[in-house]
Amino acid sequence: MKTIETTLGPLPLEKLGKRINAHDHLFLDSGPGGVNVPDFLLDDVDKTSVEIQRWAEAGGGAIVDTMPTTGRNVDKCIEVSRRTGVPIIMSTGFHKGAYYWPDHWRYLYDEDEMVELVLSEIKEGIERSNYRGPVIKRSPVKAAVMKVAGEYNRVTGNMKKLIDVVGRVHQETGTPVYAHTEHGTAAMEILDLLEASGVVLNRVLICHLDRNPDLFLHKEVLARGAFLEYDTPSRFKYQPESIVIALMRSLIEAGYGDRLMLGGDMARRSYLKAYGGGPGFEYLLTEFTPRLVQEGFTEEDLHLIWEENPRRWLAS
């Protein structure tokens, strides 16, 4: 029986729940992200636990936490899971450059060294301090997904090296990969680089492409075998929800309903009710999913988007 590593231990697929959040952020409490943009600072276990409890009460299942080797806090995620019963799937790999200090080890170590660091998080357990060192202290929780990231309209030279690292680890472990696209750009370049590094594209999830709502582009990405994750619902500064709903409907009609997922990407205090903001983690379940039903999406559509597709990406 296929199991997925989570903060509650290895779980069979059916224990991940019927509403799997494919992209979110529970904590960001180290690195320059929360220093340079205080709204990004997510550091309070009590507040995050309140948010995740609301998610659970709305019917939410497992959450993929998409902070890799910066800002991530595996021990706080474990505590949230203990309080709420929600399994959290932890990440390794690399975010975009803005989340790292200029002297971070991602810029200093050679490829072989970084392969070993990432591989160890999958095989042995996540390093509690994100390898800030010098002493390595591993959590019992293992990473189950890897992250790479583009910048706006490009992939930097350093990230190209890191994609090679992720590719080598993927070839050894089969671990699925998700890719941050900055405002929905550089998706095809990221796919080219991942494929060249040895990553099987039907294990790749491209994130944030709905911020660039170009149906032609989305079909091109899906035709290569990758999954798409949409996360603009509730964040009207990007676009009205009618646009992402139209994208979803068009892709389902084109036969790509088995490649779509949803995530909240609630990466700011101002998005979270527990911090005094909104709409909160539960919005996707209490507001957006009921709207999908009203808009004519079927139970089969919702089952694919929320349950079957995340399971296949994680475990196929």
Task: From the structure above, extract its key features.
316 residues; alpha/beta; 6-stranded parallel sheet; 3-stranded parallel sheet; 11 strands
Q: Evaluate the radius of gyration.
A: 18 Å
CATH architecture name: Alpha-Beta Barrel
Tally of separate domains: 1
Order of neighbouring strands in the sheet with most strands:
6-7-8-9-10-11
Task: Bin the strand percentage.
Answer: 5-15%
Element order, helices and strands?
EEEHHEHEEHEHEHEHEHEHH
Main sheet? 6 strands, parallel
Oligomer: single chain
CATH superfamily: Metal-dependent hydrolases
Broad structural category: alpha/beta
Q: Please give the share of residues in helix.
A: 25-40%
The count of β-strands is 11
Number of helices, where a helix is a run of at least 4 consecutive DSSP H or I residues: 10
What's the level 1 CATH class? Alpha Beta
Low-confidence stretches: none
Compute the separation of the termini in Å.
12 Å
CATH fold annotation: TIM Barrel
The coarse silhouette is globular
Overall mean pLDDT stands at 97
